[in-house]
C-alpha cells in the first residue's frame, strides 16, 4: 500500500506573510492527518523561511502523528533535529538563494558528513532518508551509507509532464533507480513538484512506497479544500 506524506511548509509560508499566527502549522498537521495523510513533512530551512524551530518542536510532539523532518547537513540544523526527535528525517541539499530544493544531494562531495549524520539518527531509531536524483549511481552510493530509504527527486519529471514534453527518458531513469533501490533493500519514496497527473503516472511504479507532496496540495486546497485534495491523491496513488 503506497503512503501519502503531506508537506505543510507552505501553511507556514502563508502565516509568515502576515507575521502573525494564522494559519497555524500545528493545527494544520493535526487536521491533515485527520483527512487521511499517512505522515506529514516539514522542512526546517537554514533561513527559517517557513517552518521554524518552535513549529517543528510542537508538531513533533503531536501524539500518533508521523513526522518527516527535512534537514540539510548543516551542524546547527542536525543538532536541532536530534533534539526535536522527529519520527523520520530526510537529508536534502540546501542553497540559501533557491526558491525550492532544486535537485538531489551531491553524495560524493559530502560523503563522510552524510554517513555520520545517518548514523546519529539511526542510533536514535529515527528513520533516515536521502533526497537523491533518479540516478542508479546515487542509489548505489546511498546503499553504502546504510540509509533506510531514498527519496527520488521528481522535479524534472513533474516539469516535463506540466509542459507536455516527452517524459519517456526521465520516466525510465526514475523506474530504473527505483528498481535498483528496491533490490538493494532501500525503501523508495518520491517527491517534488508533483501534481495529479505526474503522481498518477508515477503511481504505476510499484517500488515507490511513499509520495511526499506539498506545494500543489496546499495550492489546490484553495479551490477544493484540503480534505478533498488529500482524498483525490490517496485515490490516485492507490490506483
Ligand atoms: N520531498 C522533498 C524531499 C522536498 O524537499 C520537497 C520540497 O520541500 C517535497 C518532497 C515536496 O515538494 P513540493 O512542495 O514541490 O510538492
Protein architecture, described:
- The protein is of the alpha/beta class.
- It has one domain (3-238): Alpha-Beta Barrel (TIM Barrel).
- Helices cover 48% and strands 17% of the residues.
- It has 11 helices and 8 strands.
- The protein has helices at residues 9-18, 25-34, 53-60, 75-84, 111-123, 136-144, 155-162, 168-183, 196-202, 215-224, 226-238; strands at residues 3-7, 39-43, 67-71, 88-91, 127-132, 149-153, 187-191, 208-213.
- It has an 8-stranded parallel beta barrel with strand order 1-2-3-4-5-6-7-8, surrounded by 8 helices.
- Helix 6 (136-144) packs parallel to helix 8 and helix 9 packs parallel to helix 11.
- The longest helix is centred in the C-terminal third of the chain and has 16 residues, at 168-183.
- Pyridoxine-5'-phosphate binds at residues 7, 9, 43, 70, 90, 92, 100-101, 131, 151, 191-194, 212-216.
- Pyridoxine-5'-phosphate binds next to strand 8 and helix 10.
Brief digest:
The protein is of the alpha/beta class and 239 residues long. The protein is 48% helix and 17% strand. Residues 7, 9, 43, 70, 90, 92, 100-101, 131, 151, 191-194, 212-216 line the site of pyridoxine-5'-phosphate.
Q: Please name the CATH topology.
A: TIM Barrel
Q: Biggest sheet, strands in spatial order?
A: 1-2-3-4-5-6-7-8
Q: Report mean pLDDT, rounded to a whole number.
A: 96
The percent of residues in helical segments reads 40-55%
State the secondary-structure class: alpha/beta
Coarse morphology:
globular
Small-molecule binders here are: pyridoxine-5'-phosphate
Radius of gyration: 17 Å
Distance between the termini: 10 Å
Strand content: 15-25%
The CATH class: Alpha Beta
- The CATH homologous superfamily is named Aldolase class I
What is the string of helix and strand elements? EHHEHEHEHEHEHHEHEHH
| Secondary structure tally: strands | 8
Tally the helices.
11
Reported CATH architecture: Alpha-Beta Barrel
| Major sheet size, sense and barrel closure | 8 strands, parallel, barrel
Number of domains: 1
Runs with pLDDT <50, length 5+?
none
Amino acid at each position: 500500500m503506497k503512503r501519502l506524506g503531506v508537506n505543510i511548509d507552505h501553511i507556514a509560508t502563508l502565516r509568515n506573510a502576515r507575521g502573525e499566527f494564522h494559519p497555524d502549522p500545528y493545527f494544520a498537521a493535526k487536521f491533515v492527518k485527520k483527512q487521511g495523510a499517512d505522515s506529514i513533512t516539514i522542512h526546517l530551512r537554514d533561513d527559517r523561511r517557513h517552518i521554524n524551530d518552535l513549529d517543528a518542536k510542537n508538531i513533533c510532539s503531536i501524539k500518533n502523528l508521523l513526522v518527516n523532518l527535512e534537514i540539510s547537513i548543516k551542524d546547527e540544523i542536525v543538532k536541532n533535529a536530534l533534539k526535536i526527535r522527529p519520527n523520520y528525517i530526510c537529508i536534502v541539499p540546501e542553497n540559501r538563494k533557491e526558491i525550492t530544493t532544486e535537485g538531489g544531494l551531491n553524495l560524493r562531495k559530502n560523503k563522510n558528513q552524510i554517513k555520520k549524520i545517518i548514523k546519529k539518527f539511526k542510533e536514535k531509531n529515527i528513520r533516515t532518508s536521502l533526497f537523491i536524483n533518479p540516478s542508479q549511481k546515487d542509489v548505489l552510493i546511498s546503499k553504502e551509507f546504510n540509509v533506510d530509504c531514498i527519496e527520488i527527486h521528481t522535479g524534472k519529471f513533474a516539469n516535463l509532464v506540466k509542459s507536455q514534453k516527452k517524459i519517456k527518458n526521465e520516466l525510465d531513469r526514475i523506474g530504473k533507480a527505483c528498481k535498483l533501490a528496491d533490490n538493494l533493500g532501500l525503501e523508495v519514496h518520491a517527491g517534488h513538484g508533483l501534481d495529479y497527473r505526474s503522481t498518477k503516472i508515477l503511481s504505476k511504479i510499484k517500488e515507490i512506497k511513499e509520495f511526499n507532496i506539498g506545494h500543489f496540495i496546499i495550492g489546490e486546497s484553495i479551490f477544493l479544500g484540503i480534505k478533498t485534495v488529500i482524498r483525490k491523491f490517496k485515490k490516485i496513488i492507490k490506483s
